[in-house]
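Section 5.1 Outputs to date
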Amino acid sequence: MAPETAAPWISVRVTPTRDAADARRACLAALFRVGAQGVHEDGAALVTHFPPGTDLAAVHEALTSADETVVIETAPVPS
């Protein structure tokens, strides 16, 4: 029997594109509203991780409401 593998956490990298300071604050607030426990600032990008089962459509909706042209990148977190 093969060992069970847990679903990976998801990395979300957000790069605001409109008026930098306002868009960054709005995107940061949106990430916390949808459940981010912490956010790492990586240059212009904001990076966080969400657990398996997170509603990524809700994350996307919150971020695009904060900045309609935000760049959102998602990827599984390597184990």
